[in-house]
C-alpha cells in the first residue's frame, strides 16, 4: 500500500483564493485542479487540498505547516508574505532551538512555523506539524506510535523529550519527526491552556486504490475514535482523517456520473468502492 497522505484545509468559499495566495509565495507551486467545491494545489512540491465546506469549521494552530530551510533570506521573504493580513504567534527571532524561527497565522487562519534548520534526506521543506494540547497533552508520542504502526514505509526519527530539569512533565514530547509512507510529519506536546483542539478545519486525506486499503485505514484509525460521514473519521486523539477511494476524483470529473456518485457517498460512512461505482454508472 503506497497511499498519498496530504492535508485538507477547510474554507468558507475561499479555497481558490487561498490556493492562489500560497502558490504565489512558494517556488515549484501550482494549482492542479479546481471547481466550486475543491481546489487542489502543490506548494514546494507538497500536495494540499482546499475544501469549500462552509462556515462550520475553522483552521486552528493545533495542526500547522512547518517550513524548514537553511536560507535565512528566503525565510524572511516568506515570513513577510505570510504575515500580510495575518499575525505573529511567535515573532521571527533567534530561539534556543534555531538561529531564526517564527510562528505566523496567515490571513486565511492557517498557521506556519518557519525555521532555519535541517531535515532528513529527501524530505520536502514543508511538512505538517501536530500540537497535542489540553486533554491531548502528553499524547504526542502515543499518536506517533499509533500512526507508524498503521501506515507502511513509516519511521520514527530520534525524539526530543522533556528531561527531569524541565518545568514540563518528564518524558513528554518536546519535538519529534516521523514518516508515514515516506511523508514527513512532526509532533509535539503543548503545555498550558489553549483555546483550540484538533478539529475538521485541517484533516488528512488518504487516497486508497482498493477496498482492502480503505477497510484497513478505517478500522485502524476509528478504533477508539469516531466514524463520520462521507469517509471522514476522527482517530483516538481527535485528529480528523478522510479515507477516500482514488477513483472518486475520476467519477467527480464526469458531469454525468458526479451527481450519482455524490448521492451514493452521502449515505456512506466508510466508502464502499463497488457500490460507489455501480451508483455512478447506473
Description of the structure:
Helix content is 24%, strand content 35%. It is an alpha+beta fold and 282 residues long. It has a domain at 209-280: 2,3-Dihydroxybiphenyl 1,2-Dioxygenase, domain 1 (Roll), CATH 3.10.180. The strands form two sheets. Strands 5, 6, 7, 8, 9, 10, 11, 12 and 13 form a nine-stranded mixed sheet that branches. An eight-stranded mixed sheet has the order 2-3-4-1-14-17-16-15. A hairpin with a 2-residue loop joins strand 12 (173-180) and strand 13. The model has no long low-confidence stretch (mean pLDDT 95).
Short description:
With 282 residues, this protein is α+β, with helices and mostly antiparallel strands. It contains 7 helices and 17 strands.
Strand content: 35-45%
Radius of gyration over alpha carbons? Answer: 19 Å
Count of alpha/pi helices: 7
- Share of residues in helices: 10-25%
Give the SSE layout.
Blueprint (H helix, E strand, L loop, with lengths): L4 E7 L3 H11 L4 E5 L3 E6 L2 E7 L10 E7 L2 H11 L4 E9 L2 E8 L5 E6 L9 E7 L7 H11 L4 E2 L3 E2 L11 E8 L2 E7 L12 E7 L2 H12 L3 E2 L4 E3 L5 E6 L1 H6 L5 H8 L7 H8 L2
Parallel strand pairs: 1-4, 5-8, 9-13, 14-17
Antiparallel strand pairs: 1-14, 2-3, 3-4, 5-9, 6-7, 7-8, 10-12, 11-12, 12-13, 15-16, 16-17
Helix pairs in contact: 6-7
List keywords for this structure.
single chain; 282 residues; alpha+beta; 2,3-Dihydroxybiphenyl 1,2-Dioxygenase, domain 1; nine-stranded mixed sheet; eight-stranded mixed sheet
Amino acid at each position: 500500500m503506497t497511499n498519498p497522505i496530504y492535508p485538507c484545509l477547510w474554507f468558507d468559499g475561499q479555497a481558490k483564493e487561498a490556493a492562489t495566495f500560497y502558490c504565489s509565495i512558494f517556488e515549484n507551486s501550482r494549482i492542479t485542479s479546481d471547481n466550486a467545491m475543491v481546489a487542489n494545489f502543490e506548494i514546494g512540491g507538497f500536495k494540499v487540498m482546499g475544501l469549500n465546506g462552509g462556515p462550520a469549521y475553522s483552521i486552528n494552530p493545533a495542526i500547522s505547516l512547518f517550513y524548514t530551510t537553511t536560507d535565512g533570506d528566503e525565510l524572511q521573504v516568506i515570513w513577510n508574505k505570510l504575515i500580510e493580513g495575518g499575525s505573529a504567534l511567535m515573532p521571527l527571532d533567534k530561539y534556543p532551538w534555531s538561529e531564526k524561527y517564527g510562528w505566523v497565522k496567515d490571513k486565511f487562519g492557517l498557521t506556519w512555523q518557519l525555521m532555519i534548520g535541517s531535515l532528513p534526506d529527501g524530505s520536502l521543506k514543508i511538512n505538517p506539524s501536530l500540537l497535542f494540547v489540553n486533554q491531548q497533552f502528553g499524547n504526542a508520542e502515543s499518536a506517533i506510535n499509533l500512526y507508524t504502526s498503521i501506515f507502511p514505509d513509516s519511521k520514527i526519527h530520534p525524539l526530543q523529550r522533556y528531561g527531569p530539569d524541565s518545568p514540563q512533565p518528564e518524558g513528554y514530547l518536546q519535538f519529534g519527526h516521523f514518516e508515514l509512507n515516506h511523508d514527513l510529519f512532526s509532533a509535539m506536546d503543548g503545555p498550558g491552556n489553549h483555546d483550540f483542539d484538533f478539529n475538521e478545519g485541517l484533516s488528512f486525506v488518504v487516497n486508497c486504490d482498493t477496498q482492502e486499503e480503505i477497510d484497513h485505514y478505517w478500522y485502524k484509525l476509528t478504533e477508539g475514535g469516531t466514524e463520520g460521514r462521507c469517509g471522514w473519521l476522527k482517530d483516538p486523539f481527535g485528529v480528523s482523517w478522510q479515507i477516500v477511494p482514488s477513483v472518486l476524483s475520476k467519477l467527480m470529473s464526469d458531469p454525468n456520473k458526479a451527481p450519482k456518485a455524490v448521492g451514493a457517498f452521502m449515505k456512506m460512512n466508510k466508502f464502499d468502492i463497488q457500490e460507489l461505482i455501480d451508483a455512478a454508472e447506473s
